[in-house]
Here is the input.
Amino acid sequence: MNKVILMGRLTRDPEVRYTQTSNTLVASFSLAVNRRFVRQGEERQADFINIVAWGKQGEFCSKYFKKGQQVGIIGRIQTRNWDDDKGQKHYVTEVIAEEAYFADSKRADGGDSGNFENTFGTEVAQNSEFELTPSDDLPF
Here is the structure.
């Protein structure tokens, strides 16, 4: 299984280009993803991960994602290689975005973009008829 889930901040606005053969939109950007642990006396470190989004997903990212924004990306790792003009081989590893979400807690216009629906693209019932009480028996 090849599945990656990342949350980080864009290091730059997405860069858009189109393929030569099929004129498909491709958006590429980099995410700064904080490492989970900080060594005592050191600053938090981050990994800078290259992201590529194709087609409609790329269009969404290029239209709504901006430098500094916190986003969530779900996708897969892909490696590729090529030879340059001098015959030197180059390798790159990148994440191909299959899903992209806003992850900031507040937007600049004051709206709340950090709720479950905006983060995960799923609607949550606000007034559910099912409520748990301390006396409920849970199966786990």
